[in-house]
Design goal:
- The chain is of the alpha+beta class and 287 residues long.
- Helix content is 32%, strand content 28%.
- Helix 1 crosses helix 9 and helix 2 runs antiparallel to helix 3.
- It is globular.
- The protein starts with a strand and ends with a helix.
């Protein structure tokens, strides 16, 4: 069995490289040949046919949907699938896919697609966003590690953000809890693996890359059931699910990350996440 591990063509984040190396390490210990490669020229279309090098499977740690679809259509089993990666990459689409499935999420208002820099934003739109109440959260649909996520505290802030970002896909979300804290849950093959609480005392975003600190969290049955359901709905092989808790203790699914970093979870939970993922890859390559 040979496995391709794909990272972004212009990788600058040491955490992504470390993630790929940990997965490769565990796969090799299980007698799987694997190669970590940058997403450059992996597939092409020649004479109407997709040309790709042959691998039994691919761990796709990028978000390049064209490359993922090319590899997948050439017959290579991807972890995660191209469709699952695309859904998680667009945060608003993630919420749409989870809607009407009995999954609690913060209330969301999408921003209409805008093509023109001089377009006037309607008061009706501002009114719909303000129903979420201040403070609220503004999110670009695409972004990782907390980038493109802003706290909006007033109507003046809202109008500035909207003017600056109206030509970018984005949406607004109800602010849950006190900020700076969430639970990151790792799910592999549809099964709960571990959870950690992330806390950032200097930012409303809890991301480890922004200074957040993780600690092992003992998940109860309700949390495990909720996160396994999310992974099943989105048909994810591997994911990290971010869960918010309001002041009354109610939980909400905030984001779902198809390529969630697991180094901090391994450290604080004492769980070999990479090994569990490698074992699932071997068992699932023909599914």
């Amino acid at each position: 069995m040979n496995c391709l591990i794909v990272v972004n063509a212009y990788i600058q984040n040491n955490s992504q490289r470390a993630q790929a190396e940990r997965i490769a390490q565990e796969l090799r210990l299980l007698n799987v040949e694997c190669e970590i490669v940058a997403n450059i020229g992996l597939s092409k279309i020649i004479d109407g046919k997709i040309i790709s090098d042959r691998y039994d499977c691919c761990v796709f740690l990028d978000k390049d949907k064209a490359a993922a679809r090319l590899l997948e259509k050439s017959g290579i089993r991807l972890f995660n699938s191209a469709r699952a990666i695309e859904i998680c990459d667009d945060k608003m689409i993630t919420h749409i896919e989870l809607a009407d499935c009995g999954i609690p999420m913060p209330d969301c208002v999408y921003a209409p697609l805008c093509y023109y820099s001089d377009a006037k934003i309607s008061d009706k739109f501002y009114s719909s966003v303000k129903e979420l109440e201040f403070p609220l959260v503004a999110k670009l649909c695409y972004g990782s590690l907390g980038s493109g996520v802003s706290k909006i505290s007033s109507e003046a802030d809202l109008r500035v953000f909207e003017q600056q970002n109206k030509q970018h896909a984005h949406f607004y979300q109800k602010f849950i809890g006190r900020g700076g804290e969430d639970i990151r849950v790792i799910v592999i093959g549809g099964k709960y693996v571990c959870a950690m609480k992330r806390r950032n005392d200097n930012d409303f975003r809890s991301n480890i890359e922004l200074g957040g600190v993780g600690e092992c969290y003992t998940a109860d049955t309700d949390l495990i059931t909720l996160c396994e359901k999310v992974a099943a709905v989105l048909q994810l092989d591997y994911c990290g699910i971010d869960v918010l808790t309001d002041n009354d203790g109610k939980r909400y699914i905030c984001e779902v990350n198809s390529n969630a970093f697991f180094a901090e979870a391994e450290r604080v939970c004492g769980v070999n996440v990479a090994k569990k993922y490698a074992e699932f890859i071997i068992a699932g390559k023909n599914t």
